[in-house]
Amino acid sequence: MFKTDYCGDLRVSDEGREVTLAGWVNRRRDQGGLIFIDLRDSRGLVQVVIPSEEAQAHAVASEARGEYVVRITGKVQRRRAGTENDKLPTGEIEVRATAAEIMNSAKTPPFYINEDADVDEQLRLKYRYLDLRRERMTRNMVIRHQVVKYIRDFLTDRNFIEVETPVLANPSPEGARDYLVPSRNYPGNFYALPQSPQQFKQLLMVAGFERYFQIARCYRDEDLRADRQPEFTQLDLEMSFVEQDDILQLMEDLYTGIGAAVRPDLSIPAPFPRLTYAESMRRFGTDKPDLRFGMELFDLTNAVRGTEFIVFKSAVDSGGAIEGICVTGGAAFSRKEIDALTEQAKQLGAKGLVTIAYNAAPEAATEDDIKSPVLKHLGLDMIRSIGKLADAKAGDLVLIVAGVGGVPVKEPGSVTRVKPALDALRRGLAEKLELADPNTLLFAFLVDFPLFEWNADEERWDATHHVFTSPKPEDIDLLNGDDLGSVRSNHYDITCNGWEIGSGSIRIHTRELQQRIFDVLKFSDEDTKMMFNHMLEAFQYGAPPHGGIAPGIDRTVALYAQESDIREVIAFPKTKSAQDLMTGAPLPVEQRALDDVWIQLAPKKD
Ligand code: ASP
To answer: Which of 165, 191, 166 is nearest to 178 (CA)?
Structure first.
């Protein structure tokens, strides 16, 4: 047997046993007569003592260095009183070596494996196999495994079956750009890597499976942010004969269950609150609100109607909105801090930021109690009523953004800047003031999304979620009108702590309605035929009512691992510019290989 035990598993109950261990030298301390090696393997660390009396083992230990691979045989003994390490699960014992062997040497790693120091991300990604040896990453990978295992068991217990769907799939407009794979057999034709298994899972419902899931890799060629990767994993699921509530309840049970199994120390309040899209936009300015703290948006458009203050007046006159947030205790912010907030608001697309600091309760405030560059313009009465509207207390700071507001905005070229700016300010301030409890996962469901959203760049309506989402039955008639922005859909999201975790919907399951949506979206008959004919056809062969959802596994794991970047929970992630720094991908290929797939490269653009 190569090894009898894992280092990290040994306990006092193993005292007296002879064990053979194999792993990596985490740390080595040479005290002359006595050498200590902290030996690490996939399950943790144990201290090995090698006294000079054990000549063979001692000679080997003298030669070993950090990250060498060694095998050690010895006896488990209790550590001397006073030398126990209560930070290590194995801290009460040690292994006294009787034989040792070096199985491989190691160069000095480019960063410390045995410390949780901040290491340059580029270096971490280049040497990911070393980065993954670090405790934090090993822990995250274990959490990932536990989460996915829990999901598989949970769904299996509820009669779901896991079905694999193709990775070489059909190109389809799902919102993002497709990763394309050229076909050798059909010159000029392409597969697309799936943005999600959406069509296949719906076809599995037509096939009669009723409950499907898959831990599915999805591919989207978009510009990346902290919570995006070109390839990512979804828990993709679909059910027949269900309503929205069935799916939301399933998600609530799943996410509280994962918490209880994997991180019982975290607080996961249930039932998960449900907000309509409209309510969430009104109160938080976003469809992925962080509900762990207040600081909700308030609308003062009506309250300031009639003011001559030009910033507000022009917003009101142009049909825009004026909204604000109230920062508890913010009156104490320095000039510099206020300037930074203003700068941030500008970067977020706001024209400027109006600030009012209340050093007394608004109703009792005199001019001396107010610190605001707009005191003169608005007058004390207006400042007081804004304070009351904001529910400001003595010591609070009110931040106001004026501009084109309201959601969704369908006029070509117009943008909703007020809400995104206040949303970002609210998040930033919560972080600065530590308002959100990091040990709480506050999930929420967002419902009643609009079916369509206006694409100002291309001057057309797009499906908010995707083209297979059904409209609310009571809104179907609105499909005939021109206010497509008011058609609500059976699309829902699950969010947590300000992240969107996943989207889903009750689908269209009749050919007529599906065709009607394609018409409303002005898809040409040719496009529809080429891209969706199989769906339209399938709906004619007894398609059951069905719906589903697809939460992101990476985001889910990041929540339970308390990581803010999904790259920390992906073994081999790509950089924000979609590169793999370890293998170098993407890489050029020989012209011969391109010839095979009928590709001629265009000259490089500068
Ligand atoms: N396919 C959808 C997505 O990837 C999820 C769903 O509707 O089930 O967002």
So the answer is: 191
Ligand 1 atom with minimal separation from the 468 CA: 7
Q: Distance, CA 265 to ligand 1 centroid (Å)?
A: 31
One DSSP character per residue, 263-289 reads -TTSB--SSPPEEEHHHHHHHHSSSS-
Q: Does the beta carbon of 504 sit less than 6 angstroms from any atom of ligand 1? A: yes
Give the tokens for residue 401.
């953004």
Give the orientation angle of helix 277-284 with respect to helix 418-432, to 10 degrees.
Answer: 60
The per-residue pLDDT for 407 is 44
CA of 547 to the centre of ligand 1 (A): 10
Domain map (residue ranges) of the chain? 7-104, 138-276+440-591, 293-432
Check if 247 has its Cβ closer than 6 Å to any atom of ligand 1.
no
State yes or no: pLDDT of 410 exceeds 60.
Answer: no
Give the pLDDT confidence of 169-184 residue by residue, as tens digits: 998 765 789 999 999 9
Atom of ligand 1 nearest to the CA of 491: 7
10 C-beta neighbours (distance < 10 Å), count: 25
- The rounded distance, in Å, linking the Cα atoms of 274 and 289 is 11
Higher-pLDDT residue of 16 and 347 is 16
Regarding the beta carbon of 464 and ligand 1, being less than 6 Å apart is answered no
Determine the residue of 160, 165, 196 to mutate for testing ligand 1's pocket, defined as the one with the most ligand atoms within 8 A of the Cβ atom.
196
Largest CA-CA distance found in the chain, in angstroms, rounded: 93
How many CA atoms lie less than 13 Å away from 255 in the CB half-sphere? 32
**Domain over 293-432 is classified CATH 3.30.1360.30:** yes
Cβ 469 under 6 angstroms from ligand 1: no
Is the confidence at residue 451, as pLDDT, over 80? yes
Does residue 216 have its Cβ closer than 6 Å to ligand 1?
no
Ligand 1 contact, 548 CB (< 6 A): yes
Of 202, 222, 228, 234, the residue with max ligand 1 atoms within 8 A of its CB, to mutate for a pocket test, comes to 234
Contact indicator for 275, 447 with CB cutoff of 8 Å: yes
pLDDT at 10: 98
In this structure, which topology does domain 138-276+440-591 adopt according to CATH?
BirA Bifunctional Protein; domain 2 (3.30.930)
Q: Residue 469 CA: which ligand 1 atom is closest?
A: 7
Question: What's the CATH superfamily of 7-104?
Answer: Nucleic acid-binding proteins (2.40.50.140)
* Mean pLDDT for the chain overall: 94
Mean pLDDT of 332-351: 91
C-alpha 521/C-alpha 507 separation (Å) is: 16
For residue 378, what pLDDT is reported?
A: 95
pTM of the model: 0.94
Give the tens place of pLDDT for each residue, 20-78.
999 999 999 999 899 999 999 999 999 999 999 999 999 999 999 999 999 999 999 99
489 lines ligand 1 (CB under 6 A): no
C-beta 198 within 6 A of ligand 1: yes
